[in-house]
Design brief:
With about 150 residues, this protein is of the alpha+beta class. The protein contains 5 helices and 6 strands; from the N terminus they run αβββαβααββα. It has helices at about 5-20, 60-65, 80-85, 85-90, 125-145, and strands at about 25-30, 35-40, 55, 70-75, 95-100, 110-115. It has a 6-stranded antiparallel beta sheet with strand order 3-2-1-6-5-4, with helices on both faces. The longest helix has 21 residues, at about 125-145. It is globular and about 40 Å long. The model has no long low-confidence stretch (mean pLDDT about 85).
Length: about 150
């Protein structure tokens, strides 16, 4: 495992605790390939996230890429999750929130996601913590030059 991924997992674990989340993950967006690849997570129940590749417009991560801002989603049943978001299905998430990790000039470099396996939606302070963490992830990404 790369040292950078280990650092990210520690940061994701901190965010998970701060926001009372069950799951947090970070993805890198390759605009030239139009692919979103999940690279690190905390609180996962299986390792399916490592093999997931999303496209813009697909799932909550794709929604973030498409609209360029924080998105929150609730799916109450497996059928809803299957139809709308494979990450939520794989991790049994009922509520998730995701935000872009921005490069200079508002170009999206990745996605930071947090989720809960219970139905409590995220409040303003938790969404603010998510957005703040996304800023720190971009600084970390620049240092690691991924």
């Amino acid at each position: 495992m790369m040292a950078g991924v280990m650092d990210w997992e520690e940061r994701l674990s901190e965010l998970r605790k701060l926001t009372d989340s069950d799951f947090c993950a970070v993805a890198i967006y390759a605009a030239s390939e139009r692919q979103i690849r999940w690279v690190a997570a905390s609180g996962y129940t299986n390792e399916k996230f490592r093999y997931m590749v999303n496209r813009p417009g697909q799932g909550i991560a794709g929604d973030v890429i498409r609209i360029g801002r924080t998105v929150q989603k609730t799916c109450l049943s497996d059928e809803q999750r299957r139809d709308s978001d494979y990450m939520m299905l794989a991790e049994h998430l009922i509520v998730s929130a995701a935000t872009p990790i921005q490069r200079e000039h508002n170009e999206t470099a990745g996605i930071l996601l947090m989720g809960r396996r219970k139905g409590e939606i995220y409040g303003v302070s938790e969404l603010t913590q998510l957005e703040s963490a996304a800023e720190h992830f971009w600084e970390e990404t620049k240092r690691q030059q991924l």
